[in-house]
Amino acid sequence: MKIDIHGHFTPRAYYEELETLPGVTVDRRPGGISFLYRHGLQWLPFNEAMFDADHQLRDMDRKQIDIRILSLSTPSVYLFEPKQRITVCRAMNDLIIDRVAKDPSRFRAFATLPLPDVEASLIELERVRHAAGIVGITIGSNMDGLPLSSPSLEPLWQALNALKMPVFEHPMIPVFADAMDEFTLPMRVGFFYDTSLAMSRMIYAGVFERYPDFPFVVAHTGACFIDLMERLDSGFLRYPDCQKFITKRPSEYAKRLYYDTCSFFPPLIMMAQQYFGTDRILFGTDYPFIDQDDKHVRELPLSESDKALILGGNAFSMLNLKPHQG
Questions:
Q1: Which of 60, 63, 101, 106 is most exposed, with the fewest beta carbons within 10 Å of its own?
Q2: Which of 38-52, 137-151, 158-172, 262-276 has the least mean pLDDT?
Q3: pTM surpassing 0.85?
Q4: Which pLDDT band, with edges at 50, 70 and 90, does 326 fall under?
Q5: How far, in Å, CA of 323 to CA of 326, rounded?
Q6: Cβ atoms within 10 A of the Cβ of 7, count?
Q7: Which of 319, 266, 261, 326 is nearest to 98 (CA)?
Q8: Lowest mean pLDDT, pick from 97-101, 272-276, 320-324
Q9: Cα 235 from chain centroid?
Q10: Among candidate residues 287, 175, 265, the one with its CA nearest the CA of residue 220
Q11: Residue by residue, what is the 3-state secondary structure of the chain?
Q12: How confident is the model over 151-178, as a mean pLDDT?
């Protein structure tokens, strides 16, 4: 079974809501990729095909993907004003639940929470967690600037840990994106930096020490995070500030996390596989923003049994999936 852990849900209604945000303009290009701009900078790509509800299935059939785990992408709902954030979040979760219900053998979903409002997020978590097809939640690498290591998020981590609910991290535009004012660098570079910063903060802040029981998936094969292992461990061994909230080297916590294959870069995927283990790697396509199939996994110098685990076996176990749901 082939399971895509990183496939995005992109309803037209979501993009229409994003267009209402201050500073957002639209560059529509008939027949090609269009863009949302924010404060004059290229922000989010889109095309008409991805708004077609059945395009997902056609894409999956073409790539021989059995199940795709849908999730809302950047910028999630974090940029909306508090009341609108809750409204948009509930609407998007209802839409994603309805989409899964139409093809329950092909889709599951990560729900979205109206963060950084933790109280509202706990209410929404309770509302959606029993819905058919919901297998976890998705969370951004920052929430309109609030880091994932913020003490204000402790009740959320506690709840997710008690439920053993999987969490899928996806990068957001970093807070320093104004310094990346050309070449779509906020997405090309900023995404990877922000994921790496988020994971470093979470580990040093002791989130995974206090709450070890919920699976956590890091997008884009950990971004730049694997390269930082030696430096993070060195910080723990040398600096008191890096020892305040953890009792083990950061690499020990990193080895308990999961990493998707959406770097699409075989040397990095192999580094992750060798360092973290085959059972920590999950296949992803980053649909619809990257038109990838499973070639980047099939061509890895690994055994067929290892490839089968990466392409679906690991996700099936981690998400506790059943062959047919709903």
A1: 101
A2: 38-52
A3: yes
A4: very low
A5: 10
A6: 25
A7: 326
A8: 320-324
A9: 27
A10: 265
A11: CCEEEEEECCCHHHHHHHCCCCCEEEECCCCCCEEEEECCEEEEEECHHHHCCCHHHHHHHHHCCCEEEEECCCCCCCCCCHHHHHHHHHHHHHHHHHHHHHCCCCEEEEEECCCCCHHHHHHHHHHHCCCCCEEEEEEECEECCEECCCHHHHHHHHHHHHHCCCEEEECCCCCCHHHCCCCCHHHHHHHHHHHHHHHHHHHHCCHHHHCCCCCEEECHHHCCCHHHHHHHHHHHHHCHHHHCCCCCCHHHHHCCCEEECCCCCHHHHHHHHHHHCHHHEECCCCECCCCCCCHHHHCCCCCHHHHHHHHHHHHHHHCCCCCCCC
A12: 95
**Amino acid code (one letter) for 242:** C
Q: Which two tokens stand for residue 30?
A: 């008939």
